Amino acid sequence: MTFENQPLRSLNGFRMTGRDVPDTGSVTLVSPSAIGAINRGRVLQALYDNGPTSRADLARMAGVNRTTVTGIVQPMIKEKLLVEGKAGRPAAQGGKPARPLYFNPDAPMLGAVLLLPGSIQTCLVSLTGEISAHRRAVFDPNGDVDAFVATMKETLGKTLSEAKQPPFGIGVAAGGMIDSDNGVIVAVNLAPVLSGLPLVGILRDHFGLQVVIDHHPRALLVGDRWFGPGRGQQNFAAIYTGEVLGGAFYMDGKVYRGLAGSGGELGHTIVQIDGLRCNCGKRGCWETLGTLSWLRAQAAEAGIDDPLDIDCARLVRLAREGSEAAMDLLDRYARNIAIGIANLQQTLSLNAYILHGDAATGGTMIADLVRRHVEDFVMMRPNQEISILVNGKGEGHTALRGAAGLVVSDHLKLVI
Fold it and tell me: What domain of life does the native source organism fall in (predicted)?
């Protein structure tokens, strides 16, 4: 096996020592296993960020000796997650030629599921993020639980059958309120058939594989961190807009989940006292102003043609064609998205926000508008820069990759 030489990227905070564990503000000690998980995760992220990398280069980047790196990577080589390539040319100063480490192309695949109201997507994902055996299915959001479970098993089963060897496990990215600790979908307002469903147990018992589930926006976040615009970032948020609104946080090098995965219900933060009634039953939720239902209602009021078909991509296109009504609505949509981001910025100061879903289809135009409104809302500090990015890979692509990343993280007990 041969690898191309690639320039190393600088890794923010990449030091593989016990001292690097984030300070929690308490005297609780960190176990050796937790330190090991952090170190394994950072080696993997270094490989994702930089491509094939030798032990010597990993050691140099981390400021540790090569023996320390070997102790971290050797178990992953034994598990066939990583493989060493052919030795390159010896250095001019002599010494043993370096052998680059990278992901094993013959490693077991990862099963991934994206479950949203009315739709199922399944696929296989390689350790380097390539997607294959992709399938789609639909289900009745208000239908029979047994019918949904049968559809899920059939769709996922066909995908897994294309794997050459048993996958490492199955990762599920699901919309709605998720109890990630117990593997249960707590509630989905737009798909009541899923509410209360112990999906992890159902799939684990049926397929005999490790199964991990998490909130859909957190899977997007993991996809961003491992494979997308979040590479190398230590603090950022993923924001999803569409029929619903959600988000997830990556803070100080870790995914924030909250109690039983309850963190990140951003759509139900209040941005307008006594505002519009939300699907959750409350008023003034961010979701009432930053989703497609609001956008389409406003498009109808503005007299835009075919308002029920309007989305951010079409609105941007109409605005660029000279429609003042479309430009005005696009700016108000951006402002509504910016209100919630500004509150996050004032509270957490993450500085970087990646848009997904409908807003991401608006490209740089919507990103620039959102950024300008955020900067108007927040108290900017000297030298502070707020970035609003879009993930152009598409929601399904990123979420499925993120779901696969959940499996890797759980399999290796990574602290992400």
Answer: Bacteria
